[in-house]
Amino acid sequence: MAAAPQAGRPAQASGGTVNGRPRLSVIVITRNAGRHLAACLASVDFADECVVLDSGSDDDTLAIARAHGARVECSADWPGFGAQKNRVLALASGDWVLSLDADECVTPELAQEILQVLAAPAHVAYDMPRLSKFCGRYMRHGGWWPDRVLRLFRRGQARFTDARVHEKLVAEGSVGHLRWHLLHDTHADLDEAIAKINRYSTDSAQVLHARGKRANLPGAVGHGVWTFIRMYFLRLGLLDGRHGFVLATVTAMGSYARYAKLMFLNDEARRERATPPR
């Protein structure tokens, strides 16, 4: 399906370039991302194309995406983060691709740096630091900064792993490093943080179970305790004040929940094996 012309985006020049540089596509996957998406797309108005792949939003996500000139596609299923990002990548037409999460924004300084890099790229991909906000505060310790993420790459020379959660972008060539950062509004409040950790721990436990991994209660507790110690003390999360303590606690809860859920999946599998066939 051909995309409609995108209001507010640069027109493509002959030879596949815009103002002498390669064309840039921004790709975003969404589901009920209405609270963040407008800021995300507004921050990349310098891109030549924005492609949004949605997986069942029932809020105003699709209307926001279209209002910002994005090409919008929908998928009927949810294969996991890695596979979904490869799907939206396949829809991009630019020479270069910038992959963003819906709760991320490109700063003006990073936008300018990206355009400068695209004018004379020396690598096939570039990573950038990401500054994340937790419950209203940007976190600079606890392992959250500088959180370098690989997001800008030449199309055809990078691909996401198929991991259901915690997917990675793998580049086929050298990777450069950008100076300026993304802004990441990851958890607006504690309710959102706990809900997200619950979803991620469930997905992670299912992935581990499918790989034949096993867990027990002491191991689950140990994972949670070690996560807190590493984040709050070893990675100096304590320097972020009470936010650092809460973040380390919530992250430890997620680690504990992942292995506790895996333990129960193991139990369920044992019961099924022990049940004689009828």
Q: If you had to describe this structure to a student in words, what would you say it looks like?
A:
With 278 residues, this protein is an alpha/beta fold. It folds into 2 domains: 14-186, Spore Coat Polysaccharide Biosynthesis Protein SpsA, Chain A, CATH 3.90.550.10; 189-271, no CATH class. The chain contains 7 helices and 14 strands. It has helices spanning 34-42, 61-67, 81-91, 108-119, 190-210, 217-234, 241-274, and strands at residues 17-18, 21-22, 24-30, 49-54, 71-74, 96-101, 104-106, 125-134, 137-138, 147-154, 158-160, 169-171, 175-177, 182-187. Strands 3, 4, 5, 6, 7, 8, 9, 10, 13 and 14 form a 10-stranded mixed sheet that branches. A hairpin with a 2-residue loop joins strand 1 (17-18) and strand 2. The chain is globular.
User: Average pLDDT value?
Assistant: 94
Report the span from N to C terminus: 50 Å
CATH class of the largest domain: Alpha Beta
Hey, roughly how much beta strand do the residues contain?
15-25%
Q: Describe the biggest sheet? A: 10 strands, mixed
Give the tally of β-strands. 14
CATH superfamily of the largest domain: Spore Coat Polysaccharide Biosynthesis Protein SpsA, Chain A
Query: What is the percent of helical residues?
Result: 40-55%
Order of helices and strands: EEEHEHEHEEHEEEEEEEHHH
Give the name of the CATH architecture of the largest domain: Alpha-Beta Complex
The third-level CATH topology of the largest domain is Spore Coat Polysaccharide Biosynthesis Protein SpsA, Chain A
InterPro entries: Glyco_trans_2-like (IPR001173), Nucleotide-diphossugar_trans (IPR029044)
Protein name: Glycosyltransferase family 2 protein
GO molecular function, one term: transferase activity
Pfam family, one: Glycos_transf_2
